[in-house]
Amino acid sequence: MARLKAGVIGFPVRHSVSPAMQQAAFDHLGLPVEYRAWEVRPEELEAFVGRLRAGGWLGVNLTIPHKEAVVPLLDDLAPEAAVVGAVNTVVAAGGRLTGHNTDVAGFLAGLPPGEDFAGARALIRGAGGAAAAVLFGLLGLGLAEIGVFNRRPERAEGLVERFSARNPAARLRVIGEDRVCEYARACVLVINCTPVGTAGTPLAGRMPLAPECLAPGSFAYDLVYNPPETPWLRAARERGVRPISGLTMLVHQGAAAFRLWTGREAPVGVMLEAARRALAEFDDASFSDGG
């Protein structure tokens, strides 16, 4: 039987552990699929998406910087992807491409079970596709207010305006750089939705927000999963902040994508263990490369 293709596309993408995680899932269930990472520059995206229509593909995952740019290149959008305005999973079937957003489910799966966020404040750091998915998920938690901070404030303004139009009852605010630290201290949940801190990239070792801005007892949720404990999460933990690694989100968004491609339940435990092994190997390689 011919092997189908699937993969993750981004730029850069060498830091991704999705190939190890997804391949382990396909192999565990005996499915003839090859999943790999494809480094696709922004100017190459349209041509790559065109190749998905030719057959032989289950679909792809997308990461930075393609989650929003891919939207107009697709035939259909699932409801959650249409609202979020970003796609992290494409399903190829019958020559048509459908965009989904499994980041929402993945993000919510990473939150501590049973924690009640109703009436509290949250801060989102970033304003791209991942931030949009997180904002969509937060709207269902009963928060009193959600702030968005981005180095380019016009992007934060666009995100807040778009979601405010759909959710007029929600209290959404753009937070300026001069107020972000003060605002973060009043939040029970601060989420980094940027790639700042990702190992193996020029952003490795950096922090998306000063840890001094976090209130002890609050939660710091870093969507960056490589390394599993970023410098920001480590510094937050040392200040009495409760850290949440992006690894759980990675696995659960990947499991949701797996179900969309195959119609089978994903072996979540297998995927988690494969992701941990890949991260451990990456960490060893990172030190040998001086990164």
Q: Could you please describe the fold and organization of this structure?
A:
With 291 residues, the protein is an alpha/beta fold. The chain is 37% helix and 19% strand. The longest helix has 21 residues, at 268-288. It is globular and about 55 Å long.
How do the strands of the widest beta sheet line up side by side? 2-1-3-5-6-4
* Mean pLDDT score: 93
Specify the biggest β-sheet: 6 strands, mixed
- CATH architecture designation of the largest domain: 3-Layer(aba) Sandwich
Counting structural domains, the number is 2
Contiguous runs where pLDDT drops below 50 for at least 5 residues: 284-291
The radius of gyration over CA amounts to 19 Å
The CATH fourth-level homologous superfamily of the largest domain: Leucine Dehydrogenase, chain A, domain 1
**Helical content class:** 25-40%
**What's the number of extended β-strand segments?**
12
Order of helices and strands: EHEHEEHEEHEHEHEHEEHEHH
> Which class of secondary structure composition applies to the elements?
alpha/beta
Q: For the terminal residues, how far apart are their CA atoms?
A: 41 Å
Q: What is the overall shape?
A: globular
Key phrases:
291 residues, alpha/beta, Rossmann fold, 2 domains, six-stranded mixed β-sheet, 10 helices, disordered C terminus
Topology record:
Blueprint: E1 4-10, H1 18-28, E2 33-39, H2 45-52, E3 57-62, E4 76-77, H3 79-84, E5 89-93, E6 96-100, H4 103-110, E7 121-125, H5 129-138, E8 145-149, H6 153-166, E9 172-174, H7 180-185, E10 189-192, E11 219-222, H8 231-238, E12 242-244, H9 247-262, H10 268-288
Parallel strand pairs: 1-2, 1-3, 4-6, 7-8, 7-10, 8-9, 10-11, 11-12
Antiparallel strand pairs: 3-5, 5-6
